[in-house]
Structures
1.
Amino acid sequence: MNTDNAIEIRGLHRSFGKTDAVNGLDLTVTKGRCYGLFGRNGAGKTTTIKCLLNLIRPGSGTVPVFGMDPEKKEVEVKSRLAYVPDTVGFHHWMRVRDVLEYAASFRARWNTDLQVDLLDRFALDLTQKADTLSKGQKMQLALITAVCPEPDLLVLDEPTTGLDPIARREFMESVIGAYQDAAPGERTILVSTHLIMEFEGLIDEFTIMEAGRDRLTMEADAARERFVKVRARFDAEPPTFETSDAIRLTREGRELEFILNGNRDRVLARVRELGPLEVEEESLSLEEIFLVARHLGGKES
Amino acid sequence: MTLRQVVRIQINYKTGAPVYQQIVEQVKLAAASGSLRAGDALPGIRPLAERLRVNRNTVAKAYAELESQGLAESRPGKGCFLSENASPYRKGVRQKLLADVIDAAIVQAHHLQIAEEEFMKLAERRFREFDKRKGDA
């Protein structure tokens, strides 16, 4: 166990009846990172998160959080993290103020300045009944209750699903910025999502989950450098071109197009030897990388 | 003019260049072009991170890189400032900035099958073109 790791999942298995929800997952989240857990619905993201929170128990494997077993050290683990599920609800009789006071009552610490700052940014009214808030406002309130105790780990499960596109774009970076700003390098975020575009610049590192396993784990910058769409235009039908470093290679009209998966310089040099008129390179976004990950071989890292 | 207007940092994910590196390069460019001067404050880490919609770690890494290159200095509690002796004004750095752009043009010339001689002639023609425009103005 490395003490620089907030989360260190090894060989996690969890099944429900005959269905394997998580099937041999390895995942390491270093302290201070904003880590993305990407996957389609049913890939095993929520089951994984629930194991970290001891809401369900692993079938096998280990899921230490800050080096502690979430089952044996439940209180210690939970006092150091905050969790926001994909749908949030509040007691119907509570006003915004009551929700905040109630949440604060469970916590050793509560940053009041941060609460005031975020309430102001989101223009939330302390006296409004919480269950009359819009979906986006409810999520904002839940996020405030999660960051004000200044936990060491913030776990967000599909935080932007169900929100309209404007709400989605507006507040994730505010909350994440406010949370991490006070103690850079110490505060860790694990966010699961299939709406990857919203998190493009926020994610330091990610794991793409598929059928309960880690399909691809990479740093965001390294991934964008590795996966590059290449389009070469010729003055006639392009010559045949084969390489094991290309995904989805197509020859259409006078164009040769493929997605590079490593060995950039070598493959591009070979393309140029074919004498194209023009070669365009464009890095894939994290969302596009998520879409091509299915075409890759087994586990990669 | 506020700083926000002076430093127009924009992130382009399609280049594949690391995000922090893009910030470093654009601050250097702003310094080299004179739109940022010695002693000017760089945008705060959190506001810039929010505006660019990137992780604050990324902006912090960019500023740390600028510091380690001697281009910026952080003053505790006040933020990050362009160094008084910021080396963007040094010839070597200015040349490096230009060399990157020229390299890109050379690669493009190669794709377009424009030979060195033709490239140089074109460059000279462009210089004359600019001289002429300057003369007219």
2.
Amino acid sequence: MDAFFDWFRWLYDETGINLTFIYDAFDRARLVNGFWTTIWLSAVCLVLSVIIGVVGAWLQGSRLKWTRRIVQGYIQFFRNTPPLVQLYFFYFALGSLMPKVQNDWGGYEPMLGNFAWAVISLSFFAGSFNVEIFRSGIEAVPTSTIEAAESLGYTRLKAYIHIVLPLAFRVCLPALNNNLVNLVKTTTLAFAIAVPEMLYVSSQIWSDNVNVREMMTFLLIAYVGLVGVLVWAMNRWERAIKIPGYGSQ
Amino acid sequence: MFRRNRKRRRPRMNPRHELAVLLPIRPLKANASNADRKFDHLPVARLRAVHLLWLFLIFSASALAAGAQTGAVKPSIAKTILAWTPLLLKGFGFNILISFMSMAIGTVIGSVLGVLQISLLPPVRLASRFLTQFFRNSPWLVLLFYCMFMLPFEITIGELRIPFPDWIKAVIGLSLPVMANVAEIVRGAVNSIPSGQWEASESLAFTRRQQIWLIIMPQCYKRMLPPWMNLYAILTMATVLASIVGVEEVMTLAGQVLAAEGRPELLVPIYSFVLVWFFAYCYPIARWTIRLERKFALNI
């Protein structure tokens, strides 16, 4: 392994291509941490946004007019405002209103840190898209199926969980995947509130080592690779649980 | 959100193994009453009726709540915001300018890339497809950073010096993902044209170029318009990213206003003010897109 690292040190001496994040142990640890933070942030947001989508789609089918209206207002608001401003709004504006709690060292700090706010903001943003996606899937389930479930004694909630959702999920998986891929790309915004994800860590590395060019190229390739793997896996899953004879191809 | 319009094909109903329990996905609302549908034809009326009113109420409530905490010495929140509005509006106008320019550049290059993707020459097709996928799969912010740091601050060609200010770099950085998405929209639209159109025009002895320009493309414009508008709304929302790299647009100005005032109670009102501006600009576009989508939708 040392020979491998030394080769990159040699590369720097010979060509000036300074890949500190490979041969320097400190930078390497930073970048690996940043990578895992990106993954962790994406995973948490992904799960939360899907939950928001499922619950929101259920509420949107509610019989109460005002429930539908509030959900609709939430969707439209989060879809039509910039995610970055939402993030700022959550972190700086709402974060400043939060009560402070005492930490282990006796100092006071805000109740929710920047990571928590990034999770909240990005989940709500992606969730607003997921609600619409799940709704389109639910609409594809015919009323006769729901009526059949009703006649078998299912309540509205039980029919939703056991009958409607599994069918709807398979129909709307392609759209859902697109949104989740976008969510992973949107996690870079957490840079703005100093969440130590990959972009933020890279910016620290390039300000320490003045190797902007190498870091930027690496970042671009890393993100394209990450998203590429995700797209590939999702497409396989899509093909595996696709309803036969439905949709294109 | 950027990949939503990839494939818009009619669901194929194969009589042999068709699953009869599922309906095709339709963009229509299931639980909308007739009156609601009538309202949808007037996007502005609907907007005024419900959503903007709500937003405005939330905004003024937050301003009032924050205003109640302030002492008598300082001017009220509403007055302060009103005083800064011209500056913030100027910043917002700059955002719109950036979005227009990026959209123009992205559309022109993206259309070319999209047509190249349906080229009959495999190297051209593969190269343009790779380019499209690469720029579509990379985050907008990373591309923006890339352009910010990689482009020189000026280009010297002989005696001529072309300066590259930050905002021009931001325009270029934002036009890259737009380009890739437009290319994908073009390809998707061309693919959605039934193959009978290609075959019929071929049998009428149209050349390949004539086929594309005279037969296929005229049918594509209608299909491309809604996703293209959708992309524009997304781009407008992405222009705030330029504030991270230091372009003086509305978010930067909002931050400066907050710093100049130094009053924490202004945080919520100012940020919601910016949010409301973007909403007021993007929401009508979204409504209009849905309307066009419905108008152009094929009746299955």
